[in-house]
Each structure stands twice: as structure tokens, then as C-alpha cells.
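Support request from a user on the community tier.

User writes: "When I paste my C-alpha cells into the form, the page sometimes reloads and wipes my input. The last time it worked, I copied everything first. Here is what I submitted, just in case something in the input itself triggers the reload:"
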């Protein structure tokens, strides 16, 4: 009896412990399971992307006592499932991206346009006339009136930048027209000053005007090289330097050539009436302006420019020798001495003359 009672007590104790452990396990499982919301608060099932519908498949319930229940569509899954949590976040991000409106093309164009205007300010014709051309006008004035070798306090970088901006803003035609008009007015004033010059100063003043203008071109042409490259050469098929030289030819040289040439011929016949450097500058300058003017005085041009006259012939050698002797006599009459002859040995001149005569005679046999 005692043993049977002990066995019954031991069995009942074990059964009680099993029931308690089972209840504790169910309570732990129920702690992870969220209770379903009341029917009135359940929202209408929303459409989910195909991926979400495929993942929301029925799952086996862990409750051994109740019937097998699956996850209802639209019911939030357990928070402990990491895969479904990640899909949920991705779905939320996709929905947020769909909610953002697409950019309007017109607004994009307006932004780009405003940005381009901000980066490079538009230069209107009023801006060109009031700001940019006055800077170029003042620089051109200084370059046209400077003497050779003078220092001009202007910023070549600033002037070049003005030309560059005006060309980029489609003001090349207006700038070229203003440049030609500016230089034309300057040359007309120079021509009037030469007409009022007396004959004894006419050659020297013409030489100054020619040298001053040619020196100014050496600075003006590089400053407008961008306009020359992208407007004059491209659209007009010309060159800026040639156009500016042509201006001096038309407004100065052509008006004074018939007054200048007689004075040059007269100065040539009278040694040292005009310095050789002045004569050379004028003759070479006239030849550069218009080579056809050589026909007006071939002998004068041939003294400073090679290959003007035809080649020498043997029959004219005596005439050339007579011209050289005449030039030597004129030089001596004007005070040009041959130098110190005191240390020259007697008979050297005679020996030199006889040897040169013999050599020339042998050469012509």
C-alpha cells in the first residue's frame, strides 16, 4: 500500500510538472505573437508589389492546441522575422519614391539658363557702348599718339580681355566698325597737319607720321587678334593689318605722294639735306604701302631697295664709275674727309692705283 501510494504521488507530481512546463512554453510563444486588431480598426487591404504578395504566404502556427492559422494579407508580420522586415522597408522606400513628383523639364531649362547667365554676364549693346568701347578707345588713342620707344601705362591684358568678351558676345562687327572709324578720323587729322607743314619740314614730319603709325600697328593688331581671327579672316576674308595699312595709304600717302616725291628727288641731289635714315624710312615705307610707286622714281628707290633696276651690263660700267666719282667729290665738298692720311707711305696710292688699273685691264681682255 505504501509503495503504491508513493508511486501514485510520484506520478501525479510528474504530471503536474509537465503541465506547468507546457503552460510556460505556451506563454512564451504567446509573448512573441501579437494579438489581432479588432475588426473595426483593420484598414482596407492595400495593394502590394508582386514581391510582397509572394513573400506573404501562409505559415504554420506554432500553437499545437488551436487550428493552423496563416498570416492574413495586410496583417503586420512578426517583428522577429528579419526577412519580412527588410522587404517591408524596401516597399516603403519604393512607395516614397513614387510619391515624389518627377522634375519638370521647363524648370530644368530655366535653372540651366539662369546658371549660364550667372557664369557669364550678357553684354548688351548698351553695355558695349558705355563700358567696353570707351576702354578700347582710350587705349587706341594712346597707341596712335605715342612716340617710338615711349612707355604707355595701359593694361594690355585688360584690353585683350575686353576684345575677347565682345567677340564672344557677338559684337565683332560693331567693334570692327568702331575701330576703322576711330583710326580713319586720326589719319584725317594727320593729313591736315601735313598739308599745313612748310616745305623744309615736310619730309621730316611725313617720316614721323609714318613711323608713328607703323609702330602703333605693332601693338593694335595683337590686341585685336581675337577679332581678326574669328571675324575678319573668317567672315570678311581679309587681315586686320592689311586693312589698317590700306587706311594710311588712302587717307595720307595718296594725298601727299605728289608733293612728297619732288622734295625727295631734290633732297637726293643735295647730299645731307635729309639724313640717310630718314630717306631710307620714307622710301621703304612708300614701297610697303604701294609698290607701284617705284615707277615714279626708280633710281631713288633702287638706292634703298634691292633688285629694283634691271641688272647692270658691261657697257654701262664707265657710267657707274663716273657716278661714283661725282658722289665722292660732292661728299668732299660738304666736309666729308677721307680720314687721317699723315701716316700713309709715299707711293702707296700710286702703287694701289696702278695695280688696280692692271687688274681691271686684265679682267676686261
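"...and here is what came back when it finally went through:"
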Amino acid at each position: 500500500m505504501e509503495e503504491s501510494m508513493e508511486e501514485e504521488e510520484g506520478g501525479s507530481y510528474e504530471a503536474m510538472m509537465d503541465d506547468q512546463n507546457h503552460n510556460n512554453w505556451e506563454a512564451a510563444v504567446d509573448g512573441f505573437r501579437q494579438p489581432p486588431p479588432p475588426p473595426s480598426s483593420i484598414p482596407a487591404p492595400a495593394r502590394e508589389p508582386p514581391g510582397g504578395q509572394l513573400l506573404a504566404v501562409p505559415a504554420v502556427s506554432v500553437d499545437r492546441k488551436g487550428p493552423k492559422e496563416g498570416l492574413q494579407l495586410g496583417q503586420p508580420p512578426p517583428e522577429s522575422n528579419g526577412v519580412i522586415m527588410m522587404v517591408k522597408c524596401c516597399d516603403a522606400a519604393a512607395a516614397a519614391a513614387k510619391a515624389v513628383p518627377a522634375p519638370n523639364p521647363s524648370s530644368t531649362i530655366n535653372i540651366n539658363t539662369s546658371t549660364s547667365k550667372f557664369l557669364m554676364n550678357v553684354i548688351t549693346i548698351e553695355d558695349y557702348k558705355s563700358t567696353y568701347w570707351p576702354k578700347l578707345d582710350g587705349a587706341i588713342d594712346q597707341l596712335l599718339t605715342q612716340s617710338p620707344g615711349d612707355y604707355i601705362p595701359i593694361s594690355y591684358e585688360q584690353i585683350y580681355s575686353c576684345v575677347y568678351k565682345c567677340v564672344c558676345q557677338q559684337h565683332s562687327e560693331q567693334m570692327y566698325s568702331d575701330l576703322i572709324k576711330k583710326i580713319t578720323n586720326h589719319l584725317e587729322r594727320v593729313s591736315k597737319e601735313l598739308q599745313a607743314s612748310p616745305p623744309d619740314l615736310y619730309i621730316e614730319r611725313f617720316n614721323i607720321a609714318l613711323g608713328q603709325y607703323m609702330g602703333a600697328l605693332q601693338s593694335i593688331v595683337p590686341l585685336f587678334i581675337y577679332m581678326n581671327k574669328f571675324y575678319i579672316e573668317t567672315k570678311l576674308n581679309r587681315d586686320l593689318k592689311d586693312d589698317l595699312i590700306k587706311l594710311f595709304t588712302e587717307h595720307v600717302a595718296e594725298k601727299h605722294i605728289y608733293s612728297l616725291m619732288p622734295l625727295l628727288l631734290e633732297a637726293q641731289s643735295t647730299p645731307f639735306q635729309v639724313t640717310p635714315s630718314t630717306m631710307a624710312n620714307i622710301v621703304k615705307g612708300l614701297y610697303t604701302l604701294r609698290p607701284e610707286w617705284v615707277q615714279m622714281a626708280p633710281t631713288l628707290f633702287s638706292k634703298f631697295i634691292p633688285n629694283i633696276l634691271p641688272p647692270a651690263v658691261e657697257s654701262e660700267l664707265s657710267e657707274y664709275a663716273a657716278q661714283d666719282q661725282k658722289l665722292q667729290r660732292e661728299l668732299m665738298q660738304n666736309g666729308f674727309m677721307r680720314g687721317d692720311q699723315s701716316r700713309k707711305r709715299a707711293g702707296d696710292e700710286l702703287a694701289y692705283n696702278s695695280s688696280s688699273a692692271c687688274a681691271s685691264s686684265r679682267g676686261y681682255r
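Agent notes: The reload is a front-end session timeout and is unrelated to the input. The CA atoms of residues 286 and 292 lie 9 Å apart. The chain has a mean pLDDT of 74. Escalated to web team.
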